[in-house]
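Let us work through a complete example step by step.
Step 1: write down the sequence.
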Amino acid sequence: MSSVLGQGSGAPGGAGKLLLLPSGSAPPAGSEEEKIYMLITELLDPETRETALLELSKKREMYEDLALVLWGGFGIMSSLLLEIVNVYPALSPPSLTAHASNRVCNALALLQCVASHSETRSLFLNAHIPLFLYPFLNTTSKTRPFEYLRLTSLGVIGALVKQNENSDVINFLLSTEIIPLCLRIMETGSELSKTVAIFIVQKILLDDLGLQYICQTYERFYAVGAVLANMVQALVESQAVRLLKHVVRCYLRMSDNPRAREALRACLPEALKDNTFAGLLKGDMVTRRCLSTLLHNLNERPTQE
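Step 2: predict the structure and record it as tokens.
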């Protein structure tokens, strides 16, 4: 089994150990696996759940099939979802503490395992579990507990779209209005949250259905285009190269659509045409090539190489 869990959480592919045991067998006494199963069992008890969440979130990259155990274990997913809904009252008016934010983010980290794994991803989607995260993405408070909550929630959605074969994921996200939530974070979030949010939008655009959806009406195209243009303006000051890479790739993909290409000829920010970012992209041949292709698609040329 390939380590899709590792790919979703940063661990090297195939490096994780296995937890699943033959039917009727138990992990060796005193083994790390026995400790993991004990922690998973402790998720069911409200008295021990907080510590179990913390310890399991630390160990989630060790086992490539942890997602299967979490999904298949009786009552485990319900316990994780209970952690999520328990903080809803703290969202409005905003009263989320750092302690509560850390606790729910540990639960979200385990959900990200399930979202990342090839054998549980579709089950995760079919159960509409991402919808439980949307209230978190819809918050606007800029305190650290809320920012951490939004970032971790975005990480779960990012894990869903990270896979290459993700048309079902894109369908689900489009039908549940994820784009407006991402667009607002792209405008008002921290640099890290903006980066994950625009990564999600970029992955949606890379899917043919996603590109068609965004370019289908002027309102949708304008909503995305206006936020990207505002980001370009802010990037002139911030010089955040990671964000710039995603912005260029979003514009490039939109230029594949004939109607969007025509509109971009009139509204592409000047800073992308006049070498404002030449110094920032000096060592990034891939993004420079993307920008050149974008300008070529729009029949524009940089003023200098």
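Step 3: interpret the result. The chain is about 65% helix and 0% strand.
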